From TrEMBL:
CDD domains: EAL, GGDEF. Gene3D superfamilies: 3.30.70.270, EAL domain. The keyword Transmembrane helix applies. This is Diguanylate cyclase (GGDEF) domain-containing protein. Residues 260-510 form the EAL domain. InterPro entries: Biofilm_reg_signaling, EAL_dom, EAL_sf, GGDEF_dom, Nucleotide_cyclase, Rev_trsase/Diguanyl_cyclase. It comes from Rhizobium aethiopicum. Residues 120-251 form the GGDEF domain.
C-alpha cells in the first residue's frame, strides 16, 4: 500500500507549531514578558492591557480551533486510509463470493509462497463447475450467483486454514497445505461431493457438479504458477472425460494440453482465413438410386497438406468458443455451393450439440439462408438426441422456429444415445439416421439386424424417412434395400468430395455405385 503523504493543512500546523516554539524560546531567553509588563506599567495612556487580554482570548480560541481542525484532519486521514484499504480489498477479491480473486493469486504466485511460507508443501486443486452455464441459461443469473456463493462457502468450510480463490466464471482454485501424506484423490472426491449437494434457491433445488484436477508443489518444482498450470491441465482432462471426476496431474497431460493449445491457435487462424471448407457426401434414395442431396462435412487441410479430422478440431472449437463462427462460416459456404445444384437436391448440415443451447441459433441460420438466397426447404439440419436432452427447453424453441420456417430436421446417430420414443413425439423430425455402428455389424449380428428392422418399421409408422449411414459393402446395401430403408449414405455410394470435384452424374438424377 502506498505511504500517505502529509497534507497542506498538516504542514501548516507543523510550521505554526515550530514558530510558536521559537517565539516561546526567544521570550524566555530574553525576558520579553517582563519587558512587556514594564512597558504596560509605565504607559497607562495606552490600553495595552485590554489589547493583551484580547490577544490572549483570540489565542485561546485559535488553540480550540486548531484542536478541532486537527481532529477533523485525523478523521479525514482515517477515512482516506480506510478507503484505500477498501480499494485494495476490492481489487484483490471477488465481490460476489468475497474470495480472493485471480489478481490475488497472481500476487501469491509472484512471491512463490503460500501463507508466507514458501517451503511449505501443498497441493493445488483446480475446480470447474459442471453444468453451470445451463443454470444461468435456464434459471437465470440470480440462481447462478446463488450457486457460486454456496460453492464458495462450502469450499471455505472444507479448507478453513487454506486459501480458496475464485478466478472468474465457475473456476476456483484451492491451495491446500499438506501435513503428513494425505490421500489427495480422496480429498478431491470430497470436494466433488461437497459441491455436488443441491443448492436451494427460491424454493428450487439446483443440481451442480465439479471437475477437479490437482498437482503437488513438492513434485512439480518451485514455481507456484507452474503448479497451478499443472492442476488446470489435470482439471481439463477430468472435464473432458465426464462429470464429477478427479484427476492428478501427469506429465503426458501437459503434452496433450500443449497440442490442444497449438490446435486452438491454428484453428483460430484457419477460421480467420476460411481454410476449413465443406466436403459433400451424397444421400441416395435406395429405391430409385437417385441422389436426393448431399451432407456437408467439415474438412480442414493445413498448409502442410495434412488433414485434421473433425473429431479432433470440433471439440476444440466448442471448448474455445469458436464453434459459432466456424458453423456460420461453413453453413454460408455450403449454402452458396448448394445454389448451383439442381433445385431438387437438399443440403444436409450437422449442428454441434453445444449450439442447441443458443436461443439465437435459429435466427442466425435463417439470416444466412436469406443472405445467400437458399430456400429454407432445401436445407436439412442434423441434431443428436443427446444434444436435445442437454438443454431440452432451448432446443425445443430453436427447432420449432426452424421447422416453422420450413427447415427440415433429422435425428442423427439414432440408437447410440437414449433412443427415447418420447423425443420422436415431442419434436417434428423429418428423418431418422441409423448410426454406422449398427450398419457395420448388422449382417453378422442378429440383434443388430432386429434393431434396424425395428427402426425402419418405426419410421414407417411415424411417417419419418429413415437413412442408414456407413454403407461400405454391396451386401449391406442389398440388405437395407430388402428391409425397406429409404436413404443410404456411405463410401460405397460416394465419398466426401469438395464442391468443385462433384461429378456430373452426382448432380444428375442417378448414381452408379461400383460393386
Amino acid at each position: 500500500m502506498p505511504r500517505i503523504q502529509p497534507t497542506r493543512p498538516q504542514m501548516e500546523i507543523l510550521a505554526w507549531l515550530l514558530i510558536f516554539l521559537l517565539l516561546f524560546f526567544l521570550s524566555w531567553r530574553f525576558n520579553w514578558h517582563e519587558g512587556l509588563d514594564d512597558f504596560i506599567e509605565n504607559n497607562h495612556d495606552y490600553p495595552l492591557d485590554h489589547g493583551l487580554l484580547a490577544l490572549n482570548i483570540s489565542g485561546f480560541l485559535g488553540l480550540i480551533y486548531s484542536v478541532l481542525r486537527i481532529r477533523d484532519l485525523s478523521i479525514e486521514v482515517n477515512r482516506r486510509l480506510q478507503a484505500e484499504k477498501n480499494v485494495d480489498w476490492i481489487a484483490c477479491h471477488d465481490t460476489l463470493t468475497e474470495l480472493p480473486n485471480r489478481r490475488f493469486l497472481e500476487s501469491v504466485c509472484a512471491q512463490s509462497m503460500v501463507d508466507q511460507r514458501a517451503q511449505e508443501s501443498f497441493a493445488a486443486f483446480s475446480i470447474d463447475l459442471d453444468g453451470f452455464k445451463k443454470i444461468n441459461d435456464l434459471l437465470g443469473h440470480d440462481h447462478g450467483d446463488a450457486v457460486l456463493k454456496a460453492v464458495a462457502r462450502r469450499l471455505s468450510s472444507l479448507f478453513p486454514r487454506d486459501r480458496v480463490f475464485r478466478l472468474g466464471g465457475d473456476e476456483f482454485v484451492v491451495l491446500a497445505r499438506r501435513t503428513g501424506n494425505p490421500d489427495l484423490v480422496a480429498l478431491g472426491e470430497r470436494i466433488v461431493s461437497v459441491i455436488s449437494k443441491p443448492v436451494i434457491f427460491n424454493g428450487i433445488a439446483v443440481d451442480i457438479g465439479a471437475s477437479v484436477g490437482f498437482a503437488l508443489y513438492s513434485e512439480n518444482g518451485d514455481d507456484l504458477s507452474q503448479v497451478i498450470r499443472h492442476s488446470d491441465c489435470a482439471m481439463y482432462v477430468a472435464k473432458k472425460q465426464g462429470r464429477n471426476l478427479v484427476k492428478p496431474f501427469e506429465p503426458a497431460m501437459q503434452d496433450e494440453l500443449a497440442k490442444r493449445v497449438r490446435v486452438e491457435a491454428d484453428l483460430r487462424a484457419a477460421i480467420k482465413h476460411a481454410e476449413i471448407v465443406p466436403y459433400y457426401q451424397p444421400l441416395v434414395d435406395l429405391k430409385t438410386k437417385e441422389i436426393i442431396g448431399f451432407e456437408a462435412l467439415a474438412r480442414w487441410k493445413t498448409a502442410s497438406g495434412e488433414f485434421i479430422p473433425p473429431h479432433e478440431f470440433i471439440p476444440v472449437a466448442e471448448e474455445a468458443g469458436l464453434i459459432v463462427d466456424l458453423t456460420d462460416q461453413l453453413l454460408r459456404h455450403a449454402c452458396s455451393d448448394a445454389l448451383s445444384w439442381p433445385s431438387h437436391l437438399v443440403l444436409s448440415f450437422n449442428l454441434s450439440p453445444i449450439q442447441l443451447s443458443d436461443r439465437l441459433l435459429g435466427l442466425r441460420i435463417l439470416k444466412i439462408l436469406g443472405d445467400v438466397g437458399l430456400p429454407a426447404h432445401r436445407i436439412e439440419l442434423e441434431v443428436t438426441e443427446s444434444a436435445i436432452i442437454q438443454d431440452a427447453v432451448t432446443a425445443r424453441i430453436v427447432l420449432d422456429d426452424l421447422v416453422n420456417a420450413g427447415v427440415g430436421i433429422a435425428l442423427d446417430d439414432f440408437g447410440t444415445g437414449y433412443s427415447s420414443l418420447s423425443q420422436l413425439s415431442n419434436y417434428r423430425f423429418d428423418k431418422i439416421k441409423i448410426d454406422r455402428s449398427f450398419v457395420s455389424s448388422f449382417e453378422t449380428n442378429d440383434k443388430q439386424d432386429k434393431v434396424i428392422k425395428a427402426i425402419i418399421a418405426l419410421g414407417a409408422g411415424l411417417g419419418v424417412t429413415i437413412t442408414a449411414e456407413g454403407i461400405e459393402e454391396e451386401s449391406q446395401l442389398q440388405r437395407l434395400q430388402d428391409l425397406g430403408c429409404d436413404i443410404g449414405q456411405g463410401y460405397l455410394l460416394g465419398k466426401p468430395a469438395p464442391a468443385e470435384s462433384l461429378a456430373a452424374d452426382q448432380l444428375g438424377a442417378r448414381i452408379l455405385h461400383r460393386g
